Amino acid sequence: MRHVYEGKTKGVYELDDGNYLLKIKDDVTGENGKIDPGANSIIGELEGMGNASLRMSAYYFEMLNRQGIPTHYINANFEENTMTVKPAKTFGAGLEIICRYKVYGSFLRRYGKYAQKEQDLNSLVEITLKDDDRGDPLITDEALEQLGILQASECKQVKEMTRKISDIIRKDLAAKGLELYDIKFEFGKVNDEIVLIDDISGGNMRVFKDGKQVDPLELSRLVVK
After folding, report:
1. 41 and 132 housed in the same domain
2. Element at 29 (helix H, strand E)
3. Distance (Å, rounded) from C-alpha 151 to C-alpha 145?
């Protein structure tokens, strides 16, 4: 097993069979001491967060696989906080695809002149570059194509997949009395097929219950019982 990369919330290792092992950490992102899935900075560790993220990711990846949606997920080991995945090639240095159902966070900061907090959005999809130094800037479909990051047909497919996956997760959360405000995904290619990669955890979505945001650790407990 070869160590490949150390990210904010996970370590990445290459296995002898060509697959990869993701070691999920307890680290959480946020700003001003508050956990925020939209932030780029680690604010500390939350005991049990890695295992909670893994259990939630496995729950949703297995749900999506059963519905025929391609992902990189193979299996998970909850005792070791690891997830085995297929080798996937990212688009450029990585993209984050966000699906929004409510005006919140960075969307409100950008468009507050025209939008009201918690205003409804109709599965609005945005794409940002994974670039912490530049604050994960938004990028347009045309720029993605002209910079050779994502072809127009691929961009269309990624957006369609994002809306479909988000809708599945949103309905599952709603059945548990939870409301999804926004969620972000990453996609890559496995053998030239576009698939969902990375993880699907509370650290990648904003979810509310009875008007209050649910923290990622509690969210996992509510989702995976």
Report:
1. no
2. strand 27-31
3. 5
Q: If you search the block for the tokens 């497919």, which residue do you land on?
A: 157
Residue 172 DSSP SS3:
helix
pLDDT tens digits for 117-153?
999 999 999 999 999 899 999 999 999 999 999 999 9
> Which range of residues forms the domain containing residue 37?
2-85
pLDDT exceeds 90 at position 6: no
Spatial CB neighbours of 69, under 8 Å, sequence gap ≥ 6: 161, 164, 165, 168, 196
- Retrieve residue 17's tokens: 């069979």
Q: From 101, 103, 99, 100, select the one nearest 119 (Cα to Cα).
A: 103
Residue 32 has pLDDT above 90, yes or no: no
Length of the chain in residues, anyone?
225
The helices-and-strands tally (H runs, E runs) of the chain is 5, 15
**CATH code at 188?**
3.30.470.20
Q: What is the pTM of this model?
A: 0.91
Last residue of a domain, which of 58, 85, 112?
85
pLDDT category at 26 given cuts 50, 70, 90 is confident
